[in-house]
């Protein structure tokens, strides 16, 4: 399969910020010797170079769909990148310190595009709901529609569970925020629970955000729910910026005689 | 450059965000438009011969430019070589626009910018960092600092 390698190499070496970078030891596929390589993580691509100054990566590991695990190994600070398929290769890597290992495991386990998309959708939903709430008021309590204020979406929870057991990342409780625009309150008071709890006191989880539909090989099926939300909001807030800039420019020209 | 082809092939078999039969031309001398099945999965555009299960190739959609060309046609080029264009001819102008929109949003970097934007907006409106509840506010990839393109 062809890959746009030149562009990949450019992406790897250009000065866009990396999500992590450092030396790691990579165990060979056939031979168990470890080779020290310079690794650069950008998005869901883990590039590795022979040397830090090398102009082109030796290789890249596409991280989509992988899991990252700590290794029970004679070598210190080892961890593995594993994929689901039966004949998939497992990449065994070793860091040079406990801190480096933890940092890499954390950043690699959250590197997938899918994960990023999940978080973006969640925030997008929160923002839309907030704007909806502000436009219509939310007097007296949360709207009946599933409110993301109450709890994290269970998809994100599942994604969190896949993370290896490092110093535990415990999501904090998110109290239900009640918006009451009518009374002119700036900050919504936080109320824990919103009267819509299930009987055992745990908030009902909101329905799962739609995932990629199984049969979406059809033409035109788009999974992105509000495709232009970001663009719309960007436009909207951009107008304010444009106006401010205009005002600033006029002020720079100085007072008219 | 070595890469984990098996995993990439597996990715190509997953449900696509968008897929269609279009005419495609690669930026090679003398190349012509050929019927291909193109499939958008995460930040990759896979392209197949219409009757084959395995893709001929894949384009990683980072640092690329999507340009409307003539009617029904758009192109993908990469910023380090803007003249090298992958051209795609769609069945209709509408389909063409849909693909342009979808591909512009398909990069990891676009997602990241959106996330930073939403995070910032929510923080401004509520005074709270929405990522704190997931324990990921300190992740390098989500930082609000000036990120260069």
From TrEMBL, chain B:
Q: Which GO terms describe its cellular component?
A: cytosol; early endosome; recycling endosome; trans-Golgi network
Superkingdom: Eukaryota
The processes (GO biological process) annotated in the record are: endosome organization; receptor recycling; retrograde transport, endosome to Golgi
Q: Can you give the residue ranges of the PH domain? A: 15-108
**Pfam families (alphabetical):** PH
Q: What is this protein called?
A: Pleckstrin homology domain-containing family J member 1
* Gene from which the chain derives: LOC101879956
């Amino acid at each position: 399969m062809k890959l746009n390698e030149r562009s990949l190499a450019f992406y790897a070496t250009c000065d866009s910020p990396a999500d992590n970078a450092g030396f790691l030891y990579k165990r060979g596929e056939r031979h168990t010797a470890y080779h020290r390589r310079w690794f650069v993580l950008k998005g869901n691509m883990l590039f590795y170079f022979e040397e830090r100054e090398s102009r082109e990566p030796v290789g890249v590991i596409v991280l989509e769909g992988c899991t990252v695990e700590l290794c029970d190994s004679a070598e210190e600070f080892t961890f593995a990148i594993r994929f689901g398929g039966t004949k998939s290769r497992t990449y065994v890597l070793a860091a040079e310190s406990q801190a480096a290992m933890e940092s890499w495991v954390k950043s690699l386990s959250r590197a997938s595009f899918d994960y990023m998309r999940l978080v973006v959708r969640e925030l997008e939903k929160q923002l839309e709901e907030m704007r909806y709430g502000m436009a219509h008021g939310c007097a007296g309590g949360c709207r009946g529609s599933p409110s993301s204020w109450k709890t994290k979406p269970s998809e994100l929870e599942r994604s969190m569970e896949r993370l290896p057991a490092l110093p535990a990342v415990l999501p904090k409780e998110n109290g239900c925020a009640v918006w009451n625009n009518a009374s002119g309150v700036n900050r919504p008071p936080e109320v824990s629970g919103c009267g819509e709890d299930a009987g055992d006191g745990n908030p009902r989880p909101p329905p799962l955000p739609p995932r990629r539909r199984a049969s979406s090989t059809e033409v035109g099926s788009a999974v992105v729910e509000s495709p232009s939300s970001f663009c719309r909001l960007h436009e909207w807030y951009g107008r304010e910026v444009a106006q401010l800039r205009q005002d600033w420019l006029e002020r720079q020209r100085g007072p008219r005689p | 450059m070595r890469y984990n082809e098996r995993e990439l092939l597996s990715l190509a078999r997953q449900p696509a965000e968008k897929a269609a039969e279009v005419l495609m031309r690669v930026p090679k001398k003398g190349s012509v438009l050929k019927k291909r099945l193109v499939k958008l999965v995460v930040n990759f555009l896979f392209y197949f011969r219409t009757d084959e299960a395995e893709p001929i190739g894949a384009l990683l959609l980072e640092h690329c430019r999507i340009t409307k060309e003539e009617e029904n046609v758009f192109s993908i080029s990469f910023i380090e070589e803007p003249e090298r264009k992958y051209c795609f001819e769609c069945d209709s102008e509408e389909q063409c626009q849909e693909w342009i929109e979808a591909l512009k949003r398909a990069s990891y970097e676009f997602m990241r910018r959106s996330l930073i934007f939403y995070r910032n907006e929510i923080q401004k409106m509520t005074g709270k960092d929405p990522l704190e509840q997931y324990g990921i506010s300190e992740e390098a990839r989500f930082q609000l600092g000036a990120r260069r393109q």
